[in-house]
Amino acid sequence: MQQPIYVLGTGLSHNGSAVLLKDGKVCVAIEKERLTRLKHDGGNDSAAITYCLEAEGISLNDVAVVVQCANFEVPDRERFHGKRLFGNTEKPPLVSISHQLAHAYSAAGTCAFDTCNIMVIDGCGSPFDQCTDIAENTLLPDNINVHSSQQLWCEKDSFYHFDGQKVTALYKDFSPMVVGNGHAIRLSTTQHSIGGFYAAISHYVFGNLDDVGKLMGLAPYGKPDQFELEAFSMENGRLFVRDEWKTQLTRPSGSYDDFKTHFQYYANVAWWAQQQVEQAVTSCFTEHLNRFPHTNVCYSGGVALNAVANAQLLENNVVKNLYMEPAAGDNGLALGCAFYGWLEVLNQPKVPHDGNTCFGKTYTSEEIEQALHSVSFSHQKLSTETMITTTAQLLAEGKTVGWFQSGAEFGPRALGHRSILAHPSISGIGDHINANIKFREDFRPFAPATLPHSAATFFVSGRKSPYMILVDKTRPEYLERLKNVTHVNGTARVQTVDQRWNPEFYKLIETFGQITGIPVLLNTSFNKKGMPIVETPPEALALFAESALDVLVMGNYIIQKP
């Protein structure tokens, strides 16, 4: 019997992760933050790699090649923010690739296209002299060699072609890094990146750079036309961040109390910033597709998590067929590294991907039982069918449910393996979850999870959206029944649940629909503010005990409070 071929990808940026391929398919993957419990944790990769190897029951000696990626430096084999697992060994071979190339391969390896173009847009990638993807015909900014020798210039957006086996850079743009200038607006990344702009506005509004996605949730509360400012300009096919608007934003939030006191002002800023990002993203896609046309386009990099801007690309017919890589941020770098190792280093053919993005280890009934021994909650183990029917009935009665099934999602969205679930219609449930379960801001919205064939019934476009990174609009006749999952502007970040890799969640929604007449559930990540999504049964039980969750379902176990 032929031994399997393993490839290990490791991302050492912030949002660090590790991914293990077995014969070209993902067999296990984990984000470092899920293990260390430090949100956005990165740097040293030993914990994430050990998790993957132990979950698969192999050692480093079984791995054919390791591919790594970090920002600003090429990590040393022996040490990187601490001792690494590759020290004092020559095997497996260790290959390094640059940042946006890793983003590109994460999309190439998981997309359903035979061929496609790939857009990567983020805040900051690798320095020019560390880019491993520049080919003879790659279009680059004029005099980039001179500029980069005088100042640090890093990737901000790249456009690639994937021929089914190899990713080739068609176009790459770079920007100098920002030097502090005393402005209230602080771009912490490259001077002219969309991701850097969005992060700077998030810092201005919230006072931190964590959870940049909150800005997208705040924007619908803003009023249009409060700022007559243009943040971006397109010049000779290159996107630039203008300077003029910065002088008019002079009231950075000093605290959460300050944010709440001046809520409408900051919501107006968020509305303006979101509009600017949507226009900038559309301009980048339009420019590059005019130069390099293709009907199939993949999209990765942190900016690809902006679900509103993504929907605009489809609604405005900028792109015909669009695939957003679910782990589009830096947590997906390891995924791209692994596929680069399989496709480029080992020159193996691409293996079709089934769309699954849940790659964590599955905890056994014995491990769940062991965790339950340490708590006093009542629990019962049921058959899968009875567990689903019972859970659906509890949700129909208005109970909030922590839902813990199979391996955890890889990426920032809870998609039905580590979720908090609730009824979409019962008044007050959304506010209750924000205040007493998630312990987060009251303006944060929730996503509706539904079945693919039901999406068009409840939402205007009804498009397929398995990863919760596209917004839709709730149909007017269902606004009341979907009030807990419809944002203040009538939009909803829909998840259409794929039965192939999410069978329990699919069946739960279907059963809930049979009871209530509406096959839609409120779905949000199983965590609280500032906490990574839970990974293990003890972590799920701890948050269940701490919060106002009514029910916890782990595997076939239903756990309730006295």
Describe the structure.
The mean pLDDT is 95. It is globular, with a radius of gyration of 23 Å. Helix 5 (194-206) packs antiparallel against helix 8 (263-291), helix 8 crosses helix 9 (307-315) and helix 12 crosses helix 15. The protein folds into three domains: 6-100 and 332-345, 2-Layer Sandwich (Nucleotidyltransferase, domain 5); 112-324, ATPase, nucleotide binding domain (Nucleotidyltransferase, domain 5, 2-Layer Sandwich); 365-560, Carbamoyltransferase, C-terminal domain (DHBP synthase, Alpha-Beta Complex). Strands 13-22-21-14-15-20-16-19 form an eight-stranded mixed sheet, sandwiched between helices. Helices cover 30% and strands 20% of the residues. The relative contact order is 0.12. The chain has 562 residues and is an alpha/beta fold.
Poorly predicted regions: none
Number of helices: 16
Strand order of the largest sheet: 13-22-21-14-15-20-16-19
Q: Which topology of the largest domain does CATH recognise?
A: Nucleotidyltransferase, domain 5
Q: How many structural domains? A: 3
Shape: globular
- Mean pLDDT reading: 95
Beta-strand residue fraction: 15-25%
* Fourth-tier CATH superfamily name of the largest domain: ATPase, nucleotide binding domain
Approximate helicity band: 25-40%
What separation lies between the terminal Cα atoms? Answer: 53 Å
Structural class: alpha/beta
| Extended strand count | 22
Specify Rg, calculated over alpha carbons: 23 Å
CATH class of the largest domain: Alpha Beta
